[in-house]
Amino acid sequence: MARYVSLIRFTAQGARAIKKSTARAAAFRQAAAKAGVRVEAQYWTVGTYDGLLIISATNERHALRQLAKLAGAGNVRSETLLVLTEGEFEAVLGK
């Protein structure tokens, strides 16, 4: 299962509509679930980034499609990282 961590920053549009942020997050969770993508966690943060999103999916393309749709809505920009468990990382290393 592919797992991703996305570091989120509000765009100017997203910042203007910040009060709708939790509703947008709920809508993203619902759309992602329908697409077979599990939202493991969503956090709002203070600092360089405005939020953190952790998603997983058995189909990598479905996960990436949902992240592309999120960016396309124009409220956030994200920096996404593929994350691996210890066992997954060992498999990559060929252990």
How would you characterize the overall build of this protein?
The protein is an alpha+beta fold and 95 residues long. It has a single domain, classed as Alpha-Beta Plaits (2-Layer Sandwich). It contains four helices and four strands, in the order βααββαβα. It has helices spanning 12-16, 21-34, 60-72, 86-93; strands spanning 2-10, 37-44, 51-57, 76-83. Strands 2-3-1-4 form a four-stranded antiparallel sheet. A hairpin with a 6-residue loop joins strand 2 and strand 3 (51-57). It is globular.
Key attributes of the depicted protein:
Alpha-Beta Plaits; four-stranded antiparallel beta sheet; alpha+beta; 95 residues; globular
Give a short overview:
This protein is an alpha+beta fold.
The low-confidence runs, each spanning 5 or more residues with pLDDT under 50, are: none
Biggest β-sheet: count, sense, barrel? 4 strands, antiparallel
The H-and-E topology, N to C, reads as EHHEEHEH
Determine the CATH superfamily: Apc35880, domain 1
CATH class: Alpha Beta
How many domains comprise the coordinates? 1
Helix segment tally: 4
Radius of gyration: 14 Å
Main sheet strand line-up:
2-3-1-4
Total strand segments:
4
Q: What structural class do the secondary elements suggest? A: alpha+beta
CATH topology heading: Alpha-Beta Plaits
User: Terminal Cα separation, in Å?
Assistant: 19 Å
Strand content: 25-35%
Helix content: 40-55%
